[in-house]
Amino acid sequence: MTQRTGTDGGQRNKKPTASGGPPDQELLLSFFSLKIGLSLYIIYMLRNVPRTVALCSAMMLLLPLTSLAQIDLPSRPADSPEYQMKEATNPNPSAVKVARLHYSGGGDWYWGGSAVPNLLKFLRDNTDFPVDTIERQVTIMDAELFRYPFLFATGHGIIRFSTEEKERLRQYLAGGGFLFVNDSYGMDRTFRKEITSLFPEREVVELPFDHPIYHCFYDFPNGPPKIHEHDKKAPRGYAIILNGRVVLFFLVESDIGDGWEDPQVHNDPPEKRLEALKMGVNILTYALL
Questions:
Q1: Cα-flanking dihedrals φ and ψ of residue 193, to 5°?
Q2: Which residues of 118-147 are buried (b: 16+ CB within 10 A; e: fewer)?
Q3: Hey, which of 124, 139, 148, 197 has its CA 20 to 30 A from 99?
Q4: Which pLDDT score, from 0 to 100, does residue 175 have?
Q5: b/e string for 16-33 if b means 16 or more Cβ within 10 A?
Q6: C-alpha distance from residue 7 to each of 34, 84, 128, 260 (Å)
Q7: Phi/psi-derived region of residue 245, left when phi > 0, alpha when psi is between -120 and 50, beta in every other case
Q8: Cβ within 8 Å of residue 200, ≥6 positions away
Q9: Are 223 and 235 in contact (CB under 8 A)?
Q10: Residue 119: which of 145, 154, 94, 82 has the closest Cα?
Q11: How confident is the model at residue 149 (pLDDT cuts 50, 70, 90)?
């Protein structure tokens, strides 16, 4: 894989225009406001002269502004919202898309808002994968669920699936989908019970360190990285395997999701954040191969 660099070009800090609209629309609005104002002023000043003279004078004064309207306007810059949305949302149908799972049970499914976009930007900048860097959000019963081959879930506390949700999630995973669950703290005991009931015929296994998920892009010879201390236990990766393929991966005592977040959120050292992002790339790569 070749190394790629970002394309921001240092233009992200430009101030928006006064009304928040694109600069070309601002220019047109200013131009027509000026033209209308001058027209009214000219009509007022020439109110006491013959009509023909007044009209000819007004035309002569407004012609320069009319020609100004024909000048090519500047293209929409990279810091406009429309440009950024187009840049982030890759129109390539094969672009990598990640959806955050909005689960039930009371856990904070929304935890770490900057995590997924940061991971996707890292994936875009360090691999050749086409990437859509906008995070989507779905529930298991969402009609859009099967559009997203990779689901991410995180938080603290309890994840619980209804009987109907379990059946649909089984269909999703058996059909090629992948669910990665990052224990941000407090999910281990309850969630392992939940995935046991999700696939009662399957054993929840701890993946050995030689499993491809730890080596498919970056090399993690000692298994998952330790990003946050939590209970100061060794990080572990549990999985459900269908037909020789991991379809559900559950990381405990690692918390790479927090490592994906903006640096100021947890003040993780740069090397820890890099480990977390690299492990995320491995999980995505394995899931999408």
A1: -65, -40
A2: bbbbbbbebbebebbbebbebbbebeebee
A3: 197
A4: 96
A5: eeeeeebbbeebeeebee
A6: 37, 11, 14, 20
A7: beta
A8: none
A9: yes
A10: 154
A11: very high
CATH assignment, 89-288: 3.40.50.12140
The tokens describing 254, both together, are 């690692």
- Residue positions counted in the chain: 289
Structure confidence by residue, pLDDT tens digits, 5-25: 333 333 333 333 333 444 334
- Quote the CA–CA distance of 287 and 281 in Å, as a whole number: 10
* DSSP 8-state class, residue 16: P
Q: Measured between alpha carbons, how far apart are the two ends of the chain, in Å?
A: 15
Q: How far is CA 149 from the centre of its chain?
A: 15
Q: Which amino acid is at 219?
A: D
Written as one string, the DSSP assignment of 92-128 is -TTSB--EEE--BSS--TT--TTHHHHHHHHHHHHSS
Residue-wise pLDDT tens digits, 247-272: 999 999 988 988 999 888 888 899 99
Helix residue ranges, H only, 69-207: 81-88, 115-126, 163-174, 188-198
Compute CA distances 31 → 18, 44, 53, 58, 146, whole Å: 15, 20, 25, 17, 49
Distance CA(272)–CA(268), nearest Å, equals 6
